Amino acid sequence: MSGWADERGGEGDGRIYVGNLPTDVREKDLEDLFYKYGRIREIALKNRHGLVPFAFVRFEDPRDAEDAIYGRNGYDYGQCRLRVEFPRTYGSRGGWPRGGRNGPPTRRSDFRVLVSGLPPSGSWQDLKDHMREAGDVCYADVQKDGMGMVEYLRKEDMEYALRKLDDTKFRSHEVDSNLLLRSL
């Protein structure tokens, strides 16, 4: 892993930066924090005495890195509030990723699908995973009333989702239900 954290990379390589970690953090703690977002390829923990520890976590699938940022940025971990973002690349002027300082980095599009029939236990992660069968999902959200919205990067993916995923079985971590789709 020598030099791994210094590689050029960013949003496309599945790597995330995790900052503001507690001083006694271990690699196993990081694995426990992030395993639910996808298969982890590597963890590089930088824990120099006297400095606040930080780490780089690399997922096999770059889409899982986006989910991890969304789910863990600003997360209270012990006495620390985690900062989770895509790593800055060489030559960047710093600043925050696209989503701004208080939110996750997001890509949005006009290729939206409205989803109904979600079970109360359905999460945005479950919905995003289900809808990925049709193409590249750049945004997913769910409401408590069983409604959700998914945005695709390409119009063709949205149209394919409307044809192929309408009235399909949706599995959340607790319940199965059938989804109904329409474009917005």
TrEMBL record:
Keywords: Isopeptide bond, mRNA processing, mRNA splicing, Nucleus, Phosphoprotein, Repeat, Repressor, RNA-binding, Ubl conjugation. It is found in: Nucleus. CDD domains: RRM1_SRSF9 (cd12598). InterPro entries: Nucleotide-bd_a/b_plait_sf (IPR012677), RBD_domain_sf (IPR035979), RRM_dom (IPR000504), RRT5_SRSF_SR (IPR050374), SRSF9_RRM1 (IPR034503). PROSITE patterns: RRM. One of its GO terms (molecular function) is mRNA binding. PANTHER family: RNA RECOGNITION MOTIF RRM DOMAIN CONTAINING PROTEIN, RRM DOMAIN-CONTAINING PROTEIN. This is Serine/arginine-rich splicing factor 9. It comes from Galemys pyrenaicus (Iberian desman). The lineage of its organism: Eukaryota, Metazoa, Chordata, Craniata, Vertebrata.
